[in-house]
Amino acid sequence: MTKQDPEKKKRRKDLLDIDSISVEEIDFLVKTAQPFKELFTRSVKKVPTLRGKSVLNLFYEPSTRTRTSFEIAAKRLSADVTNFSVSQSSVVKGESILDTIDTLQSMKVDYMIVRHSESGVPNFIAQNTHASVINAGDGYHAHPTQAILDTYTLKEVFPDLTRKKILIVGDILHSRVARSVSTCCRKLGIEIGVLGPGTLIPDSRPDYMECFKDYATAFAWNPDVIYLLRLQRERQQAYFFPSMREYHNLFGITSNRFETVKSEGIYIMHPGPVNRGVELIDEVMTYERCLINQQVENGIATRMAILYWLQPGENKIRKPNTEIRGKS
Amino acid sequence: MSEPSLSKTHILDEKDINHKLRRIASEILEQHPKTPLAFVGIHTRGVIVADRIYNVLIEDRKEMVKGSLDISLYRDDLDNLGSIPSIKNSDLPFEIEGATVILFDDVLFTGRTIRAAINVLTDYGRPAKIELAVLIDRGNRELPIAPNYTGHTIQTSKKEHICSHFHEIDDEEGVYKLINSERAS
Amino acid sequence: MTETQKLFKNGQIASEKSPTLRQADVLVNEKGSISAVESYIETKPEMDVIDCSRKILVPGLFDMHVHLREPGREDKETIETGTEAAINGGVTGLLAMPNTTPPIDSGGMVRFVLTLAKERARIPVMTSGCITHNRQGKELAEIADMKEKGVVMITDDGSPVANSYLFRRALEYARNFDLIVASHCETMELSADGAMHEGKVSYQLGIPGIPACSEEISIERDLSLAHYTKARIHIQHVSTARGMEIIRRFKEEGVHVTAEVTPHHLLFSEEDIGDYNTAFKMNPPLRTKVDNQQLLEGLKEGIFDIIATDHAPHTTFEKNLDFSSAPFGITGLETALLSLYTYLVKPGKTNWNLFVKTYSAEPRRILGLPSVEIKPTHPAEFIVFDPDVTTIINKAFMRSKSVNTPFLGKELMGRVEKVIYKNEILLDRLQK
Predict the structure, then answer these.
(1) Domain holding A200: CATH number?
(2) Candidates C193, C201, C205, C317, partner chain A, best to mutate (most A CBs within 10 A)
């Protein structure tokens, strides 16, 4: 009794990026997500964990999928969920984020789930509110819940992730998913390769990323997983690549490459939504080692685990071992 | 991290524990000579209590199933926890609807755990009946909950800490009373 | 109080001519001129004696790159608050940038600003004018008219003159009027929507980057044009070591170029941005630690003629926007002396003479102003600096309307105790 329960995890106020959390915390969240997924098989899928708590989806950038995933996660924990969608175009420069936060603060929100097109906004909000802030994607910076749900998905396939190889394909430069997923994989000892047009693989990338010029060399590296990033069509206008067609020919999973993927037994992941015919051909979606739907399902369980773990309000984080707690 | 200074008083040893559990087993048999029973232990040590009693009874009656419950998600004190436990799977491999369930736990204190466990069970279905068996009843209830089967009753104050250890998961076996005589600095 | 002689007793005099301080007594006459600087001056009854033991007398500083924001953004700064901030930091003369609203791009605007400055400022304010009409980079402003009304420099600071043809013509046209053309060097197409230096840190933070070459290409272009047109040019706020090397090369070729570096580009790097701290967002952006070191070497070697702060006040509201949306710029007038003393002079990385040369003497030489070296016959224009106490940079200390400085809440070494300007004492912290 006097020894610390190794299964227990100290709680945090916010989840802003992967850099600031430890391997143990990632493991804890992945482990905790699993029983939440189990809940979905019950007749009552709801648990009273966050009863009376309010969760606010603060989305400055539209994303039905991520918002819905968080909404379901929060509702299954019995929290009250409010969606506060601020369309970016309607935000007059005169109203700062701080004004919005002050307003929301007085509404006594316990958890804020923030998505914004500019990097660092969730960090800024977190510094200015007692509510727990979960970053649901900010600019090019981070998408930590995606990285954790991807880790969970990977863990379901590979119980031991050390020295597994993941090839991330596409727009590394503008991708918060790539940043968070690669940081997370790096922490867990997974090797990371990147493949994409020279314009979208930045020279300022971390040194641990192995960079490939084409699929031939990338396949020779023997990746266990290919993680395809969503391609934003507007990048074409900014000269990053000449056409969607050429992108698909060079970096998409074409039928030829799909043959290699199947014969090598490589798993396919994608954060969604998929541009069919660009990142991959249709047939990939029904491939038995395509984990895309599993990622979506695991998203809810992972986000439940994160909501369960975080603790709103500052000064509430207790030092471990300063008190003993009787079982009630 | 300095250890809090604790004074430790012995309550039950291994022999006592086995004796008490056997008595609970015979009471259960007396109450339910024929009814099919569902044994449900509350994580972590309630599961062991349930297992041991199940193993005693399985020699005399066959119509029993067992499962386990994790009540972490049903706690009402989550706000106050600086650290949280990882959640174990609740494993109820039988139909709750219409079952006669006996809940098992090691120590009964405020009753809040039992309240939570009842809530979990009813989220799975509508049992015909729920009973409660505990190794130790230490009083200080905060909810109107009473056990149907009790191994040992002791008077305690709220500040004291009662803990049980079992060979299955601990280095030793026994039930102790810990008094936190001096707070760690 | 103004009609007496003042004797500054036992101070240590800083000068661009000597790396060491010289202990001396300084006598200032009734008219505000220095009448004697001697190792010992006998006290007479008619003198006000000011004890300066253990204090340093520093010639009044001059800042060639200041945004006073008036007219247009008086919520950020006014000529009055900006010059009071200058005095608070020991700066006794400054050159204002013309990117006000409306911009200073005509003789009328120049006259307006200079008249306002005469009424409201206790120190001389000089102003620059725009190179192009309305700072739009499309047609030349009426440069001769602005010169006649008192402009000493032209610049579109805040933006480059993107059109090389137009910039060539500006250099050629300005030659006749003995005006300095100053350039904010940036290639807008490369900077695009960047908000910080492009590199590992910008990648990690997910903030669009401004590559170093955005500035370097523009420095190369502007100096090539200055070389070709034999014009006088001044390169503003250089942030990269490679940009500095380009300037060195053209200087060696004999191009008439002067260049400035800011305290923040000497002291801070991209890594200081940390958790999206907008107090470290400026343009040009903070570069790398290597750049910091090399820029300091360049300052010592004379590639940089002057230090200027690029004092750029912004409201707290604006600086509280997210990192990409917050405006570029930080204030500098009140912290330049203290921060450079704390981080460079006190640790021995530079001496007082370099500081005095680049932040007091050289700017005045460039603009053709009289010297304020502490010596007989010169006007009394100096600071009494106390190196033994510290200054806490907070709202109560600052006179600027804006508090967007990375030093906010920090403690810096030294204190500007008094500011002497001719026969006036503009600031005396011991009198409160």
Answers:
(1) 3.40.50.1370
(2) C205
Q: Is residue B92 part of a domain?
A: yes
Per-residue pLDDT of chain C (432 residues; tens, 9 = 90+): 456 899 999 999 999 999 999 999 999 999 999 999 999 999 999 999 999 999 999 999 999 999 999 999 999 999 999 999 999 999 999 999 999 999 999 999 999 999 999 999 999 999 999 999 999 999 999 999 999 999 999 999 999 999 999 999 999 999 999 899 999 999 999 999 999 999 999 999 999 999 999 999 999 999 999 999 999 999 999 999 999 999 999 999 999 999 999 999 999 999 999 999 999 999 999 999 999 999 999 999 999 999 999 999 999 989 988 899 899 999 999 999 999 999 999 999 999 999 999 999 999 999 999 999 999 999 999 999 999 999 999 999 999 999 999 999 999 999 999 999 999 999 999 986
Number of domains in chain B: 1
Task: Report yes or no: B94 at the A interface, CB cutoff 8 Å.
Answer: no
CA distance, residue C324 to nearest chain A CA (Å): 7
Q: What is the pTM of this model?
A: 0.87
CA distance B150 to C398: 73
The CA distance from C14 to C369, in Å, is 19
In terms of domains, do A137 and A185 share one? no
Interface test with A, best of B8, B83, B121 (most A CBs within 10 A): B83
CATH topology of domain C60-366: TIM Barrel (3.20.20)
Report which of A134, A230, A146 is spatially closest to residue A181, judged by C-alpha positions.
A146
Q: Which residues of chain B are within 8 Å of residue A10 when distances are taken between CB atoms?
A: 82-83
Which chains does chain C touch, 3 or more C-beta pairs < 8 A? A
Q: Is the dihedral of CA A256, A260, A261, A263 positive or negative?
A: positive
Q: B136 pairs with which residues across the strands?
A: B107, B152
Our answer on whether A and C touch (3+ beta-carbon pairs < 8 Å) is yes
Looking at beta carbons, which residues of chain C come within 8 Å of A204? 198-200, 202-203, 209
**Residue-range definition of the domain harbouring residue A186:** 144-296
Give chain B's count of helices (H) and strands (E): 3, 9
The helix-helix angle for A64-76 and A292-309 (nearest 10°) equals 50
Single-letter code of the amino acid located at C360 = S
Question: Of the candidates C118, C115, C122, which has an alpha carbon nearest to the alpha carbon of residue C91?
Answer: C122
Q: Are the beta carbons of A47 and B73 separated by less than 8 Å? A: yes
Dist CA C230 CA A142 (whole Å): 50
Q: Residue A141 is nearest to which of C205, C209, C320, comparing CB atoms?
A: C205
* Residues in chain A closer than 8 A to C198 (CB atoms): 204
- The answer, for A91 touching chain C at a CB cutoff of 8 Å, is no
Instruction: Tell which CATH classification among 2.40.30.10, 1.10.560.10, 2.30.40.10, 1.10.357.10 matches the domain C5-58+375-399+411-428.
Output: 2.30.40.10
Question: What are the tokens at B48?
Answer: 């062991």
Q: Which of C63, C105, C305, C310 is catalytic?
A: C310
Tell me which residue has tokens 């661009």.
Answer: C16
Domain count, chain A: 2
CATH number at B49 reads 3.40.50.2020
Q: Find the CB nearest C206 among A93, A97, A140.
A: A140
Instruction: Supply C135's token pair.
Output: 């700072």
A177, A199: one domain:
yes
* Secondary structure (DSSP) of A76-113: HTT-EEEEEE--GGG--TTS-HHHHHHHHHHTT-SEEE
Does A110 reside within a domain? Answer: yes
Q: Is A202 on the interface with C (CB under 8 A)?
A: yes
Active site annotation includes C145: no
Q: In terms of domains, do A104 and A149 share one?
A: no
Q: Which residue of C has its CA nearest to A206?
A: C200
Which of A43, A48, A320 has its CB closest to that of B74? A48
